[in-house]
């Protein structure tokens, strides 16, 4: 084989190799493009799904926020109505003082509170107990409780409790719509039976009754 033939053969082989490389490069590029296209499609799909999820989550968030707001508004309305009811109840104390309640005069109601408080203080005591009763300015000025009533209560409580009890009115005055504070003279035991404290102690049951009346119609 001459030099010319050798050159032509090498050139031919080079061209074939070049074409092979080009074909392989094209095939590889095509595959890469297809893979990239597929990845882009997958990414678009993931993006759409994510946006849909975000939309659903956003809807859920809006619904949750609306429900929370509704609960808050309902709670505020309930609290407002309960407070108004309790305030109205306290305001009715004036009519109770003048008209009584369920057939009991206000002095008799105070006497019952004093008796319950004193028996509670005297419970478990074997010796005599000195107890003083504190009234509000208004109740003291109206003389709802006088010495004669205290004397009768003293005898009644002593007989019922078996403890020698001595009752007296305190010169101290309390700020309250009504009721009494009863304490041992040594200050060791005190029973707060004011209207406000009794309502506070009964607040749970009072709130339940108010809720039933206002919001369930029962």
Q: Which topology of the largest domain does CATH recognise?
A: hypothetical protein PF0899 fold
Helical percent range?
over 70%
The CATH superfamily title of the largest domain: ATP synthase, E subunit, C-terminal
State the CATH architecture of the largest domain. Answer: 2-Layer Sandwich
Highest CATH level, the class of the largest domain: Alpha Beta
How many discrete domains? Answer: 2
State the shape.
Answer: rod-shaped
Major beta sheet, strand line-up: 2-1-3-4
Topology as H/E string?
HHHEHHEEEHH
The biggest beta sheet reads: 4 strands, mixed
Note poorly predicted spans. none
Total helix count? 7
* Cα end-to-end separation: 118 Å
Integer average pLDDT: 80
DSSP strand count: 4
* Rg calc: 45 Å
Give an overview in words.
- This protein has helices spanning 3-91, 93-99, 106-122, 137-141, 147-161, 195-201, 203-216; strands spanning 129-136, 165-174, 179-184, 190-194.
- The longest helix is centred in the first third of the chain and has 89 residues, at 3-91.
- It is rod-shaped, with a radius of gyration of 45 Å.
- Strands 2-1-3-4 form a four-stranded mixed β-sheet.
- It has 218 residues and is α+β, with helices and mostly antiparallel strands.
- The N and C termini lie far apart (118 Å).
- It has two domains: 1-91; 104-207, hypothetical protein PF0899 fold (2-Layer Sandwich), CATH 3.30.2320.
- The mean pLDDT is 80.
